[in-house]
């Protein structure tokens, strides 16, 4: 494929690694989360449609059979619906084998779209949104400056479901430290049991040096990171508590995780809990630290 001139740094979900990436926006429209360093070097902007269309045409010259497209950067859903529809129509017209278009989405951007707008976007091909829950605990959401509450997370997730847009959600293990970990997990379980997602993945807190001070400053008490044993206890409490109204495809295979797990919930809960217990009791399976990262 002809190489596109990406505005770096470029981030994408692990599952989009083999798919076509088109930058419809640059940076993140919110960009205030204290734990995230992904777009600190960029100012948010919507790319001109002519530039996005040019990238689509250029990509098609080298990869005409592309079937999945991820719209970068941080949250292409921030674009006006009319512009997003034009991009989706262009993709559908350019790639005859197209089966899926996806992008990141923030809770606020989902809430800004009307049910009719989301339904129209779904009909035009936007079928999957990557959505950072991080935590379902109200106080932790404030501390990490997520710009969301449990209620807004709940409402936005249901809004996507009603539009038949699948959600791939992430939760960050360790984000409450040793003090708030139980509230973190219990709040997250309560949210996910009432606002179902299609895919759920865990990440493990990994603070880049440039965000550490700002992140820790939001905690009144000293923030004590969780060690691997404590992280596995968080994972165990999460999986044990999840009883979603619809089956959830669960993964903890991101490179930041201490233990890679895969299964469907609630069906595979006993097996996943047994895997965690085996490692907690001294068994092998923990990812070596030198192989972990973002």
Global morphology:
globular
Number of strands: 10
User: CATH superfamily, please?
Assistant: Aldolase class I
Overall SS class:
alpha/beta
- Measured as a percent range, the helix fraction is 25-40%
* CATH architecture grouping: Alpha-Beta Barrel
Q: Which residue ranges are poorly predicted, with pLDDT under 50 across at least 5 consecutive positions?
A: none
Strand content: 15-25%
Distance between the termini: 26 Å
Instruction: Write the H/E string, N to C.
Output: EEEHEHEHHEHHEHEHHEEH
* Name of the top-level CATH class: Alpha Beta
Write the layout of secondary structure elements.
Layout: E1 20-23, E2 25-26, E3 45-46, H1 49-62, E4 68-72, H2 81-94, E5 100-105, H3 107-112, H4 115-123, E6 126-134, H5 138-143, H6 150-162, E7 166-173, H7 177-194, E8 199-204, H8 209-217, H9 228-241, E9 248-251, E10 262-265, H10 269-280
Parallel strand pairs: 1-4, 4-5, 5-6, 6-7, 7-8, 8-9
Antiparallel strand pairs: 2-3, 9-10
Characterize the structure shown.
It is a single chain. The strands form 2 sheets. The protein has an 8-stranded mixed beta sheet. The chain has helices spanning 49-62, 81-94, 107-112, 115-123, 138-143, 150-162, 177-194, 209-217, 228-241, 269-280, and strands at residues 20-23, 25-26, 45-46, 68-72, 100-105, 126-134, 166-173, 199-204, 248-251, 262-265. It has 10 helices and 10 strands. It has one domain (14-291): Aldolase class I (TIM Barrel, Alpha-Beta Barrel), CATH 3.20.20.70.
Keywords:
294 residues; 39% helix; TIM Barrel; alpha/beta
What's the gist of this structure?
This protein is of the alpha/beta class. The protein contains 10 helices and 10 strands. An 8-stranded mixed beta sheet has the order 1-4-5-6-7-8-9-10. Strands 2-3 form a two-stranded antiparallel ribbon.
């Amino acid at each position: 494929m002809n190489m596109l001139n990406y505005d770096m740094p470029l981030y994408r979900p692990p599952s989009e690694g083999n798919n076509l990436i088109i930058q419809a926006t640059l940076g993140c429209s919110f960009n205030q989360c204290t734990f995230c360093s992904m777009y600190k070097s960029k100012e948010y902007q919507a790319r001109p449609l002519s530039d996005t269309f040019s990238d689509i045409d250029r990509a098609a010259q080298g990869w005409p059979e592309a079937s999945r497209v991820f719209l970068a950067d941080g949250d292409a859903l921030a674009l006006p619906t009319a512009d997003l529809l034009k991009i989706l129509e262009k993709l559908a017209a350019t790639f005859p084998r197209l089966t899926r278009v996806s992008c990141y989405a923030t809770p606020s951007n989902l809430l800004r779209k009307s049910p009719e707008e989301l339904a129209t976007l779904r009909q035009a091909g936007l079928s999957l949104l990557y959505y950072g829950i991080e935590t379902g605990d109200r106080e932790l959401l404030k501390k990490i400056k997520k710009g969301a509450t449990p209620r807004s997370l709940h409402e936005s997730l249901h809004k996507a479901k009603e539009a038949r847009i699948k959600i791939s959600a992430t939760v960050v293990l360790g984000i409450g430290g040793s003090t708030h970990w139980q509230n973190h997990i219990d709040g997250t379980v309560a949210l996910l049991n009432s606002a179902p997602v299609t895919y759920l993945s865990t990440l493990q807190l990994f603070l880049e040096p440039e965000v550490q001070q700002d992140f820790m400053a939001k905690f009144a008490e000293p923030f004590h990171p969780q060690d691997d044993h404590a992280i596995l206890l968080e994972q165990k409490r999460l999986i044990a508590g999840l009883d979603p109204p619809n089956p959830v495809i669960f993964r903890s295979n991101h490179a930041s995780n201490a233990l890679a797990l895969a299964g469907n919930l609630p069906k595979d809960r006993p097996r996943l809990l047994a895997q965690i217990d085996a490692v907690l009791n001294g068994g092998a399976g923990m990812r070596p630290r030198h192989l972990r990262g973002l």
